[in-house]
Design brief:
- The structure holds two protein chains of two kinds.
- Chain A contains twelve helices and eleven strands.
- Chain A is of the alpha/beta class.
- Chain A has two domains: 205 residues, no CATH class; 128 residues, no CATH class.
- In chain A, the strands form two sheets. Chain A has a seven-stranded mixed β-sheet, sandwiched between helices.
- In chain A, strand 8 and strand 9 form a beta hairpin.
- In chain A, helix 7 packs across helix 12.
- Chain A is globular.
- Chain B is of the alpha/beta class.
- Chain B is built from ten helices and eight strands.
- Chain B has a five-stranded mixed β-sheet with strand order 2-1-3-4-8. In chain B, strands 5-6-7 form a three-stranded antiparallel β-sheet.
- In chain B, helix 6 crosses helix 8 and helix 8 packs across helix 10.
- The relative contact order of chain B is 0.12.
- Classes of the chains: A alpha/beta, B alpha/beta.
- The interface between A and B is large, with 43 and 41 residues.
- Chain B: Pfam families: FrhB_FdhB_C.
- Chain B: Keywords: Iron, Iron-sulfur, Metal-binding, Ubiquinone.
- Chain B: One of its GO terms (molecular function) is iron-sulfur cluster binding.
Chain lengths: 346, 320
């Protein structure tokens, strides 16, 4: 594998150039407490000293609100203008769990049915990952055979090693990128940094507090749709959408048409949440998931079973955001543990 | 602190055994040291799950409306701030007084779990917490930590009006003094000093990152509509499009909707995943209601009418 080195001193210049050449999405700190991924105009806005952003970079490929087309009816013809606003994009500084989450989204939007909007963005996006330097108490990416320095899915993976970034070139896209911006990527010293990265990875591996064993959980869910266990879990759920909106792999959306009454209009799609009562509300008024119990069960079934059934890839990457953000401490790792016990006692 | 947990368990056991209630809603140990989780106990043998410490942040009164149409009585564990919500729910006719047994616990302030978690080595277990007046000593199986209240308490606790519950059928803990850590409306007053443009820029920045997860609404005890205006599709008052305009509409409608009923428990502010200081909106309204109508914080007394829900001839008519 090809590896390079970036001197930290040169990074601002590279970021400024990327912001000119691409739509550059990077971690941004707001009000000192929140980190989210946003389109930036230059290095000044970028904050790379974050552990795990509060909001994942999912929105860079799958925006929370997206216009899909507009239409004009002229009386004898209907003209549809598809929104084809696709820019060449760089997602810079995404953590390994978030990059893996994009791999979980790919088969949803680029599988049997290709979603033009996602696919166009995905194909025109270079993903520059950033290894973690710290494991949070809520992290459990190790349960998914990943880790804080895992480059899977990244075109390039950067690892912060003091005054330099060690750069692993993982794909052809990454290779062309490094060639195009050759002046920022040195070859010298990469070997020593490779060792330092390995050591960092090993140290971080030992820092996981949560040892989550998924073995057997899917089997329990395969066999049991109804479990008295869910009666216990759902009561505390507030039915808000935090878990689904901060989740990097949740991908449900709703579609809306807006007409202005003058024969023109626009169609939008927006993130939706299976935690909301109207998510499964049918036109006739029937709701197959009428209470929080069915909704909570659905979310965990989706994460731990349905996504695997459909795409053979986990629907959770262990980023731990839902654990950190849930107002009532519903903790997916505790649920995994409980489900295993349920399975053993059945 | 721990003996209060013990008393809590005994009280809950007694209430359940004597069939005075069918359910106790309280706090249980969470999955991280500095967290607790709501627990629902209906068997006297299960009361051991109940706990009490300075991480019992949630306002459990929210859950009462889930049981308003269920048979039986419900006991709920409340702090001072939460207790105002009990009065308010009863005044709003959302739950009947005879349906609820309020287990009040006096509260020396709640610690911000994220601030605490950042200081404590992850994975350790909580053993004991002692209240030293201006600080808490948190004993864990990996050592002792001291947290100054003014630096580690939740923002809302820095301006606490009611460390002692305003309503309680059972009261636990020793009476807490009302401390003036910070002037109650200091943050709002600072915002009021800004120019219109500056205020607008401030809120635009806050609202533009709103995820519209609706957690602020769902955690709110006075948000009790069966169908919320933001969920209504026909007509669609506020669209699901996430943009500054719709987000602003969402937050302002919500603030005005709870005006005069917001009990200032600060839960919306505490749980926002992107740290939008929502309480400042509600506190601005509370401050104005205080200035204009001399209205106390909603829920402070059981007999309080919403200041916007009554008319008196003494009301100012500045806008007429």
């Amino acid at each position: 594998m090809d590896a390079r080195v970036i001197n930290k001193g040169q990074l601002p210049e590279l970021l400024d150039r990327l912001a000119k050449d691409y739509a550059l999405f990077a971690p941004v700190r707001e009000e000192e407490t929140v980190t989210l991924f946003k389109k930036v105009a230059g290095a000044k806005e970028v904050a790379l000293d974050y552990t795990n952003s509060d909001v994942s970079p999912k929105g860079c490929l799958f925006p929370q609100t997206e216009k899909t087309f507009s239409y004009i009816y002229t009386g004898d013809s209907l003209q549809i203008n598809k929104n084809e606003d696709v820019q060449n994009t760089v997602i810079f500084g995404a953590r390994p769990c978030d990059v893996r989450s994009i791999l979980s989204l790919d088969p949803v939007f680029e599988g049997k049915f290709v979603d033009d909007y996602y696919a166009a963005r995905r194909q025109n996006t270079v993903i520059i990952g950033l290894s973690c330097n710290k494991v949070l108490s809520t992290c459990f990416c190790n349960a998914f055979n990943s880790g804080p320095c895992d480059g899977t899915g990244s075109d390039l993976l950067l690892t912060d090693l003091g005054d330099k970034y060690y750069v692993e070139v993982n794909t052809d896209k990454g290779k062309s990128f490094v060639e195009a911006y050759g002046q920022y990527f040195a070859s010298q010293g990469a070997e020593q940094l490779a060792k330092a990265k390995e050591e960092l990875a090993k140290t971080l591996e030992g820092q996981f507090i949560r040892q989550v064993d998924l073995g057997g959980v899917k089997e329990v869910l395969d066999e049991n749709f109804e479990l008295p266990y869910w009666d216990k879990v759902f009561k505390k759920c507030l039915g808000c959408g935090i878990c689904t909106y901060v989740c990097p792999t949740c991908h449900c959306f709703d579609i809306f048409d807006f007409t202005t009454g003058d024969f023109t209009g626009e169609r939008f799609r927006c993130w939706d949440s299976c935690m909301f009562p109207d998510f499964t509300l049918m036109a006739g008024g029937h709701n197959p998931r009428p209470t929080k119990k069915e909704r909570v069960r659905n979310r965990f079934m989706h994460k731990l079973k349905y996504h695997l059934d459909r795409y053979n890839i986990a629907g959770c990457v262990g980023c731990g955001r839902c654990i950190a953000k849930c107002p009532v401490n519903i903790d997916i790792t505790a649920i995994i543990k409980d489900l295993k016990e349920v399975g053993q006692n059945a | 602190m721990m003996d209060i947990a013990q008393q809590l368990r005994e009280q809950a056991k007694k209430l359940l055994e004597e069939k005075k209630v069918d359910l106790v809603i309280g706090f249980g140990e969470g999955t991280e040291l500095a967290r607790t989780t709501p627990v629902f106990v209906n068997n006297p043998e299960d009361v051991a799950v109940l706990t009490w410490n300075p991480f019992c942040a949630n306002n459990l009164v929210k859950y009462l409306t889930d049981y308003s149409h269920e048979p039986g009585k419900v006991a709920v564990v409340v702090k001072g701030c939460d207790s105002r919500a009990v009065n308010r729910l009863i005044a709003d006719n959302q739950i009947k007084k005879e349906k609820v047994v309020v287990i009040g616990v006096t509260c020396p302030g709640q610690l911000d779990w994220q601030k605490v978690a950042a200081k404590i080595s992850p994975g350790v277990r909580l053993k004991e917490v002692t209240d030293n007046g201006d600080s808490f000593t948190v004993k864990t199986d990996a050592g002792e930590y001291k947290f100054d209240k003014k630096d580690y308490m939740l923002r809302r606790c820095l301006v606490c009006e009611n460390p002692n519950p305003v309503v309680a059928d059972v009261l636990l803990g020793k009476e807490q003094p009302v401390k003036n850590y910070e002037e109650r409306f200091a943050e709002v007053k600072a915002l009021e000093q800004l120019s219109t443009e500056e205020k607008s820029a401030y809120w635009d920045k806050q609202f533009s990152r709103c995820l519209r997860c609706y957690a602020c609404r769902n955690v709110c005890t006075v948000c009790t509509c069966r169908e919320c205006v933001f969920d209504q599709m026909k007509p669609m008052w506020v669209s699901k499009r996430n943009n500054l305009s719709e987000n602003t509409a969402f937050h302002l409608i919500r603030a005005f909707h709870v005006a005069g009923r917001c009990v200032d428990c600060g839960e919306c502010d505490r749980i926002c995943p992107v740290d939008i200081p929502l309480r400042k909106l509600n506190q601005k309204i509370l401050k104005d209601l205080g200035d204009l109508f001399d209205a106390p914080t909603p829920g402070s007394r059981p007999d309080l009418v919403s200041p916007l829900g009554e008319f008196t001839t003494g009301d100012p008519e500045e806008f007429m």
